[in-house]
């Protein structure tokens, strides 16, 4: 999957470069909405990594009727 296809606050199947383990991660805009500030939020932790550290495979579809939580940046922009 090419990086231009990525969207913030969406979940993806990805693999950390140098690892054989595939995991679900979220592309986050917590540090800013501009693409240069996007990071990868690692599920089950509070850590963020750079997009370049991961190889992305496909988006994880949200089950029907559910919605993703707004990002912290979206909440800040409302105030």
Features:
79 residues; mainly beta; 5-stranded antiparallel β-sheet; 1 helix; 5 strands; 8% helix; globular
Descriptive notes:
This protein is mainly beta. It has one domain (3-60). Helices cover 8% and strands 34% of the residues. It is built from one helix and five strands. The chain has one helix at residues 72-77, and strands at 10-16, 22-28, 39-42, 48-50, 54-59. A five-stranded antiparallel beta sheet has the order 4-3-2-1-5, with no helix packed on it. Strand 1 and strand 2 (22-28) form a beta hairpin. The longest helix is centred in the C-terminal third of the chain and has 6 residues, at 72-77. The protein starts with 9 loop residues before the first strand and ends with a helix. The model has no long low-confidence stretch (mean pLDDT 82).
Mean pLDDT: 82
Low-confidence stretches: none
State the order of secondary-structure elements, H for helix, E for strand.
EEEEEH
Q: Report the sheet with the most strands, covering strand number, pairing sense and barrel closure.
A: 5 strands, antiparallel
Topology, please?
Blueprint: E1 10-16, E2 22-28, E3 39-42, E4 48-50, E5 54-59, H1 72-77
Antiparallel strand pairs: 1-2, 1-5, 2-3, 3-4
How do you describe this structure in short?
The protein is mainly beta and 79 residues long. The protein is 8% helix and 34% strand.
């Amino acid at each position: 999957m090419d990086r231009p296809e990525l969207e913030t606050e969406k979940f993806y199947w990805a693999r950390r470069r140098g690892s054989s383990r595939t995991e679900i991660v979220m592309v986050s805009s917590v540090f800013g909405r501009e693409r240069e500030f996007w990071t990868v939020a690692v599920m089950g932790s509070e850590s963020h990594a750079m997009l370049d550290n991961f190889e992305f495979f496909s988006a994880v579809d949200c089950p029907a009727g559910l919605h993703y939580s707004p990002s912290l940046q979206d909440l800040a922009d409302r105030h």
